[in-house]
């Protein structure tokens, strides 16, 4: 797995290896890409109970950028696809991969 930075790797490993949560790996990985999202993860998603925070409130926060908003949308889209189909088919994997490549 490729990580943008060592902090991204640490974030992913911390939340992914915690036995106290049930949050899809793809959500943890994508939300952890940008420092802004890592620093404000509690305003985006409750990773302890796997509950997203209110979208409207989060998107209007002063720390948000176009990139951090886009990553949130991509993360939740990927999770929705996984929940609906149980996997990311080749077309959806390509979409997520290209969307991420354009942002980071």
Please specify the SSE layout and strand pairing:
Elements: H1 6-16, H2 25-31, H3 35-39, H4 41-44, E1 45-46, E2 51-52, H5 55-59, H6 66-85, H7 90-103
Antiparallel strand pairs: 1-2
Radius of gyration using CA atoms only: 13 Å
- The end-to-end span amounts to 15 Å
Percent of residues in helices comes to: 55-70%
Average pLDDT:
77
- Quaternary class: single chain
Q: Please tally the β strands and state the result.
A: 2
Number of domains: 1
The helix-strand sequence is: HHHHEEHHH
General form: globular
Strand order of the largest sheet: 1-2
Structural summary, described in words:
The protein has 104 residues and is mainly alpha-helical. It has one domain. Helices cover 63% and strands 4% of the residues. It is built from 7 helices and 2 strands. The chain has helices at residues 6-16, 25-31, 35-39, 41-44, 55-59, 66-85, 90-103; strands at residues 45-46, 51-52. Strands 1-2 form a two-stranded antiparallel ribbon. Helix 6 (66-85) packs antiparallel against helix 7. It is globular, with a radius of gyration of 13 Å. The two termini are 15 Å apart. 19% of the residues are buried. The mean pLDDT is 77.
Main attributes?
single chain; two-stranded antiparallel ribbon; 7 helices; mainly alpha; 2 strands; 104 residues
Brief synopsis:
The protein has 104 residues and is mainly alpha-helical. The chain contains seven helices and two strands, in the order H-H-H-H-E-E-H-H-H.
